[in-house]
What we know:
The protein is an alpha/beta fold. It contains 9 helices and 7 strands. It has one domain (8-259): Rossmann fold. The protein has a 7-stranded parallel beta sheet, sandwiched between helices. The termini are far apart. The chain binds nicotinamide-adenine-dinucleotide (NAD). Residues 12-13, 15-19, 37-39, 42, 64-67, 92-95, 115, 143, 145, 188-191, 193-195, 198, 230, 233 line the site of nicotinamide-adenine-dinucleotide. The site of nicotinamide-adenine-dinucleotide has 32 residues, from α1.
Amino acid sequence: MDTYKNxxxxxxxxxxxxxxxxxxxxxxxxxxxxxxxxxxxALTAAAKTVKTGRGKGKVETIICDVIKPLDVxxxxxxxxxxxxxxxxxxxxxxxxxxxxxxxxxxxxxxxxTDINLMGVVYGVEMFVPMMTAHGEPSHIINTASMAxxxxxxxxxxxxxxxxxxxxxxxxxxxxxxxxxIGVSVLCPTWVKxxxxxxxxxxxxxxxxxxxxSEPDEAAAALYNMTKGLVDNGMTAEKYAALVLKSVLAxxxxxxxxxxxxAAINMRRASILKDYDACLADLNEM
Length: 285
Ligand SMILES: NC(=O)c1ccc[n+]([C@@H]2O[C@H](COP(=O)([O-])OP(=O)(O)OC[C@H]3O[C@@H](n4cnc5c(N)ncnc54)[C@H](O)[C@@H]3O)[C@@H](O)[C@H]2O)c1
């Protein structure tokens, strides 16, 4: 893809944060956007903040829970009906979940996996056949996280799903390399958004008997720490601008954290240390 003008994008999680900033950046460059989100009220309010009109793209909204393949299928058809061929799919909706092993309810584990991983998979499954059929240059943009490359304690469900999105996207890029459908994976660190509120939607927080706060003290401390880092993070507008530049440049990974290089190198070194030790043992057997 070499321009956003007159192209069509489908964005999940478009009512807030990175998804909303991507919507604004794309419409400013002349693309039409179907904004999809589970939160209908926030979606309507967000759409009103997007500037459309002369030289800019249009927006439509659709309520879509990415956990439900039928919702994603319906949204894909609605996007095509509204704007014609779809050229970009931003599988962006995501939530956080913290907690210690043994203390994270399994239904919450399934919930975050369904949104952060399967939501991405459904987007790809629904839109790739449509992109293949129309044959125009297209791009799939999956939102992972820097948490898909490095880890810290207390965030296992988030890391597990984001590592999965990175691996899934790497495989997808190889799968589609011979086509004109490009793939990118977003790996941001600390971008201003409402991400820290996402865990309030987890199944056990919806149960009457369950506490509405995070499940344990460590998780609550982690929540406060990440909230502070997100509140002081990069603006979603700046990250969205980087994403649009990266997609046109055909870049696969989209990072924004100058300090993450050291973490990537440390992880690589620790993998290779054990790798070399295992091979040395094998040589002696
Ligand atoms: N903000 C950061 O620092 C950061 C860092 C790394 C990765 N990310 C990732 O960026 C993506 C966007 O998050 P954000 O930071 O803009 O957070 P956000 O909470 O501001 O936006 C997420 C949006 O997703 C929507 N959503 C949640 N569950 C949904 C579902 N089941 N179906 C459809 N929509 C749903 C929410 O209603 C919300 O509008 C997420 O995948 C997140 O994991 C964010």
